[in-house]
Amino acid sequence: MSTILQVAEERRGDIPVVFLKGRMDATTSPDAEAHINRLIDGGDRQLVVDLSGLEYISSAGLRVLLSGLKRLKSSGGMLKLTALAPEIQKVFDIAGFNRLFPIYRNLDEALGADPAR
Amino acid sequence: MLPEVVTDFLILFQMMCVVVVFAYLVTRTRFYPEVLEGGFSWKNQAILILIFGILSIYGSESGIDILGAPLNIRDLGPMVAGFVGGPVAGIGAGLIGAGYRMTMGGFTAVSCSLATVLAGLLAGIINLANRKRFPGLLLAVSGAVLIEGMHMGLVLLLSRPLPDAVELVSDAAFPMIAANAAGMFIFAFITLNLENERRTCRERDRYQAELQRKNAELQIAREIQESFLPPSLPTLPGYALAAESRPAREVGGDFYDVLGSPGGRVGLVIADVSDKGVPAALFMALSSTVMRASAAWHQRPRDAVSDANALICRESGSGMFVTLFFCILEPAERTLSYVNAGHNPPMLARADGSLSELPASGIALGADEGAVYEERSVKLYPGDLLVLYTDGVTEAEDASQQQFGDERLADLVKGLHDRTAGEALAAIQDAVAAHTGAAPQNDDMTLLVLKVGT
Q1: Can you give the pTM of this predicted structure?
Q2: Which of A52, A113, B13, B15 has the smallest number of Cβ neighbours within 10 A?
Q3: Domains: count for chain A
């Protein structure tokens, strides 16, 4: 297990995909938050966050994703999540966030799906 | 008697010793660092001119013949003054050195004096080009070499008779350039040491101030959180309660509450705010107050939680949310009606050794304004043990980042059904402590245990 969070970005067509790898906790989340905020400030309205590399997410990590989702929704956009490992999915399920975020099995499904869901 | 070459070099060595001592003393004054950091006040420039003018005079006075060639470090003072304090300081110190040189006469009086003033000027220009900073070691020393080269050129250009000038330069060029470059090396070395030292000091000070601020913040967050936890638990005939919240170094916004009401009904709350530190502590203060008020107002847990959610949503900027379990116990009927808003499912250990969970059925508060909450209820029996906890318990990690885990907690709680509330709480805390060992506590750990009397 690592103690860091790697934040990477790739554009698929018009849509930025943010890859989060490692541990997303109170210490590491600010990097991801800054990255997501930068994309939203830059005008992106559709965002996909790929969590396939995520080993752990704390409430601080959930807060960052929720903050991004709220910002995007308020301006007609959407933040989609994809590729959640079972233990990450469980965290989302308990907090009830599986009902808030559009969650896809893989990146292709997330990119192919209707943005408004 | 020592051979001439040895005595000559001893004299040269003494000269360099004087430069070392001089450089050391000057760099230890209060004004020198000020000038280094760009404080070119008139007073500072005047001090520079005076000090390095005197060094220039010393350079003339200490001039000697080394192996038959004349050598002096008259230009060193004005060069250092220029490198440190800019053209005004350089020219000023140069004028003092030049004035003194003029009084010494000789056929190179004019060219040497002029060269000393120009040395200060050129060094000052290098300082300006370097954005009023002292140039690095390499630039300072190579600058000194070039300036001394210019000095030699001026002698050839201005001093007559020309053959004498040529002879003097061919003898003196190398030792002059070498001696002034060596002197400059000493100054530059000590000056750069000083700059490094001051930079390290500044960084250390900044780091310490940051650390202090951070510690104060941690303390404030802890105090906020602590002040919103109930100071004591009410006594409840036929039941026993135990609770403890152990904050992490950086608090995580956990809280619990026990709310009595005149009808004998008792509300229990356990909750965990997202994120850490002061923001989490403030959000915890808000959430716990809102939940208390809402619980006092509404009869049903579902209404209390829905209202609390609506109020908390208004304040939940930047995605803050709180997972919360709220239940109302009817002591006489032994029923528990509850809403689990995104919180870790409390565990209920029955007297028969079975274990059930009170699962999450709604979304964490503050995340979704339109959230709908489902209320469930469960019947309690004598000897039942209900354990409410936060994820700081199950996610407590050992040194190799292995979590304590839900299963381990479930197994443990199952075996605690015959213990008192206080014993069960202590047993869970001990088991978590045994698991984590010396690993630091990353998150708040909160437990609220309800035991049904037999």
Answers
A1: 0.73
A2: B13
A3: 1
